[in-house]
Inverse folding.
């Protein structure tokens, strides 16, 4: 398996999830750790190496429990730098160290499928599929989508349009069951668990505690729990911590050739695309972005002569936006839209041309508040925290 992570971004949970992953490194054949795009930080591979440095300090203790733990140097060697920025409108660009590593691993003479766990942008996977479409049958992808999708809209849409036979679990909401709901009593309370099971436990335990101010999140860890489950090849089987999923309906791609209003309804985590050509002067624009909730999402001028703006809503609500541009015909234009949960009946609309695409179950009985599918994960909270605690006990006690 390979992990692609946006570690070093604004969310601390990748650090926590990587600590958890390395505690299980004796039962998972880790073949790559790739840094994916996020913001201003350029060399995010160094953030992966920080965690491996902590692993190195605890390595002797871990090896005392299992000789199958990989050496720190072998983990450093398979750590790769992925894209520095999100993919361009095409969804692909030039190969990266990370995308080339995915291709190399997938083409290795090995009868097992190659699992790619996406904890951030899906850009390096898109690049690998573009450069080497022959690897598709070998891949199994578990994608922590949700908010990550809005920063990789072009790469995601490229895969959805051109690699529809890909085996992919698109977890947009279920992953929140790792830290929302379920049994939160006693040591199942996140802060209590950290205090009792990780504080003072080796370099990795202390490293875990430094991120998130003792908040327990680990939003990417369901992908690891899924692989540790009984039958990863069948997403309908309860993985006891990684979720259960249903066949995908056509991937929502809402295209509007006008400014939208809050009367326009799109599916949460679906792709919203606004195409505008209000005046000939627009072609003179050199930059235009969609500003939503204080965040800027760059648009692009397409071959049809219009400016296109893509956005993925990460929650159910009424949204507003404004366009920021150096062209007066675009600058200051405003609009809105409303996002809604997928209807439970969507499970009856499976897409025949997405035979191996899986998504969160929209059954309201499996939702935790607004997070559909989350109860397929949080109902196992005590069990997977117990497994985590047993692994953390392998770390040396710091005095």
């Amino acid at each position: 398996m390979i992990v692609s992570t946006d570690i070093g971004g604004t969310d601390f949970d990748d650090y926590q999830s990587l600590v958890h992953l390395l505690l299980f490194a004796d039962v998972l054949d880790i073949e790559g750790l790739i840094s994916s795009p996020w913001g201003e930080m350029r060399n995010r591979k160094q953030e992966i190496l920080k965690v491996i440095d902590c692993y190195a300090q605890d390595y002797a203790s871990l090896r005392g429990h299992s000789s199958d733990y990989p050496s720190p140097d072998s983990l450093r060697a398979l750590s790769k730098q992925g894209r520095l920025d999100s993919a361009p409108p095409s969804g692909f660009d030039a190969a990266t160290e990370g995308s080339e590593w995915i291709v190399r691993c997938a083409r290795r003479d090995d009868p097992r499928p190659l699992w790619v766990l996406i904890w951030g942008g899906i850009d390096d996977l898109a690049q690998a599929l573009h450069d080497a479409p022959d690897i598709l049958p070998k891949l199994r992808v578990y994608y922590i989508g949700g908010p990550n999708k809005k920063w990789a809209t072009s790469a995601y849409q490229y895969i959805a349009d051109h690699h529809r036979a890909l085996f992919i679990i698109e977890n947009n909401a279920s992953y929140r069951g790792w830290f929302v709901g379920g049994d939160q009593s006693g040591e199942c309370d996140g802060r209590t668990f950290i205090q009792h099971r990780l504080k003072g436990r080796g370099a990795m335990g202390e490293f875990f505690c430094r991120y998130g101010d003792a908040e327990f999140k680990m939003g990417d860890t369901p992908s690891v729990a899924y692989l540790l489950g009984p039958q990863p090849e069948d997403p309908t089987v309860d993985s006891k911590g990684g979720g259960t999923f249903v066949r995908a309906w056509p991937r929502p791609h809402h295209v509007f050739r006008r400014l939208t209003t809050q009367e326009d309804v799109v599916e949460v985590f679906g792709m919203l695309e606004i195409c505008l050509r209000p005046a000939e002067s627009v072609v003179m624009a050199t930059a235009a972005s969609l500003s939503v909730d204080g965040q800027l999402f760059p648009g692009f001028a397409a071959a049809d002569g219009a400016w296109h703006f893509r956005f993925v809503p990460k929650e159910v609500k009424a949204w507003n936006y404004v366009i920021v541009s150096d062209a007066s015909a675009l600058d200051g234009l405003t609009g809105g839209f409303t996002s809604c949960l997928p209807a439970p009946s969507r499970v009856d609309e499976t897409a025949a041309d997405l035979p191996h695409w899986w998504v969160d179950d929209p059954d309201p009985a499996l939702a935790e508040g607004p997070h559909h599918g989350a109860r397929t994960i949080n109902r196992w909270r005590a069990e997977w925290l117990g497994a985590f605690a047993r692994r953390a006990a392998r770390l040396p006690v710091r005095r």
The two ends are 35 Å apart (CA to CA).
